Amino acid sequence: MAAVDRMDIQAAIERWVRPEIRALSAYHVPDSSGLIKLDAMENPYSWPEALRQEWLELLHQTDVNRYPDPQGNALKQRLRISMQIPEEAEVLLGNGSDELIQMLALTLAGSDRVVLSVEPSFVMYRMIALFAGMPYQGVPLNSSDFSLDLPALLTAIEQHQPAIIYLAYPNNPTGNLFEAVEIRQIIEAAPGLVIVDEAYAPFTAASFMSELGRYPNLLVMRTLSKLGLAGLRLGLLAGPKPWLEEVDKTRLPYNINTLSQVSAEFALRHEPVFDEQTQLIRQQRSQLFAALDDIDGITPYPSDANFILVRMPTRRANEIHTAMRDQKVLVKNLNGAHPLLTDCLRITIGTPEENRAAINALKTAL
User: What counts of helices (H) and strands (E) characterise the chain?
Assistant: First the structure.
């Protein structure tokens, strides 16, 4: 058999793959083997042994020779209770919030249909818009405190007439909550959908979930990843039934597998375990912020999420990130990701021991 000619493959790629896709790099997840992993906003606590054994017994009784419930109805009912989803709102499940963002893009896609968000924010809003062939418009946050630049946003909405607006609440990677009254002004001004992304809802009391039904164009998105179920890849979208019926048409059949459905429904029946872990993370967030605030030369930003954004001394973020990794502590390097994130690292809240290790590694790196 003749060897494949790489030049032929490259020529075919250049002919058929969209130029904007060729220009991208694949989403990179760094290897964290042997490191204290504080780069991905995960819950650092595993399940108690008794709960783990009960879960394993449930899995032992679960058959996987049949397709899963296509709608995930038992899980949806549990989610309605757990997340206090209004009775009149519909619920749609996704393989993580990423798939829900993709379904929204596929539903509303068009070369003249703009996706709008603030910057810096969750990178997948922009990337998935690009995948779907939709123009993306980012509106910078205020540089002093990462708050919304409301006049600029309202001007962008008027100019671009976006089909979708994403607002992360709290915002990733800055950690702050936007003013609720300003979000309401954006919802009222928006010609299309406004998605309030509450991925970090477990770490704040603020939410727009109770306001579903008040606005015909408001949807709320959540994920179970930050709660402590990142390995299950489960997200949900809640909002008016007519909208979600349309989005549901782009959902691939059986997108939530049986083991994820059973495991998530089981976990939410034991929600006090995760509430306790969430409370520990909130306490550790306050302690880690205080420890960071005591270090000269760096600036931590207040957070309502399970991470803290920290600005390093000028032009030293890359060096400090590498030095911390050399000490077996992996945090997220955001330097270069956006002009407002210059010199910034993001530290996920870990266990007390992990947080102490991060502080020690940072002090040594400085």
Answer: 13, 12
